[in-house]
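User: quick one - fold this with glutamine bound?
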Amino acid sequence: MEKILKEVLDTNRKYTNYGQVASYIPELKNARRDDLGICIVDKDNNIYKVGNCNTKFTIQSVSKTIVLAMALMDNEWTHVFSKVGMEPSGDPFNSIMKLETNDTKKPCNPMINAGAIVTTSLIKGSSFADKEERMLNFFRRLAKNDNIGINYDVYKSEKMSGDRNRAMAYLLKNDGFIQGNVEEVLDLYFKQCSIEIDAVDLARIGMNLASYGIDIENGERVMSERVSRMVKTFMMTCGMYDASGEFAIKVGIPAKSGVGGGIMASVPNRMGIGVYGPALDKKGNSIAGVKMLEDLSHRLNLNIF
Ligand code: GLN
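Assistant: Sure. C-alpha cells for the protein plus glutamine:
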C-alpha cells in the first residue's frame, strides 16, 4: 500500500504548481504551496502515509462534517433540518445569494458557510466555554489525538477578516435560523475552522465515518449509524462545494475539503483518507489533493457506485 501511495504522490506532485494558497484569510497564505501528503487508515487500523503527513494545518471547512454530526446528536433531527436544508447549492461555499432568493431563505445545506454557521449554533453547552470544550473533545475523540487544539493566529485572522460570514450570520438571525448572540456563534465557528490537524487526523476521522460510527480500535460507538450515513451523504452531494458533482463522477467517494488545503475522504467499510496540499483551485479545493484522490480511487477501485 505504501508503494501505491508513493506512486500516487509522485505522479501528482506536478499539480502543486497550479492554483493558489488561500489568502482571503491572511494567516493562511503562510502555507508552503509544494507541501503534499496522503494518509490512509484502514478498517484493520493499519496506517499508511507518504509525504507531508505530519505537517499541521487548519481544518477549515472539513470541520463542517464533525459539527453537523454534533448538531444531529445534540438536537431532534426535525429541528436541525428546519434550520438548514439538504440540497446542494451549486454556488461558491461563501455565497450569500440564496439566503435572499430561496423561498424559505434557509441555507441550502450544512457544508457551505451559511449552513455551517447554523449547525454551529445548534451545539449544546452550559456556557460558551463548555460548547468550545465539547466541540474540541469530539474532534479529539474522532481523530484519537488529545493534542488537537486551536491555532490562535488563524483564529484571530479569521475573526478579523470574516465580515462576509458575519453578514450571513446576522441575516440568518434576522430570518430566525439562528438564535442568541450572533458574535458568540461566529466565534465558535471561527474557532472550529481554526482547529489544527494533520493528514493522519483527517484519515482517522474519515475511518470513524467509514465504520458507520464505530471506533475501530476499541469498538466504542462515537456516533449513531444514521448520523454517520447522513454526514457521508452530505459529503457526497455537497462536500466539495460547487465541484461536488464532478468529484462524484470522477472520484466517487464521500469527501470534504477545506481552504487550509485538507481533504477528508471516507470509503464505507474500507478506509479513511486524509490529504494535504494547500494550493487551491478557484472553487477552494486542493488541486493536487483532488488529483491524488482520483488516481487512488482508480488504482484501489474505491468508487462506491
Ligand atoms: N473558515 C473558512 C471560511 O469561513 C472556511 C471556508 C472553507 O474552508 N471553505 O471562509
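One thing worth noting: The first strand starts at residue 20 and ends at 21.
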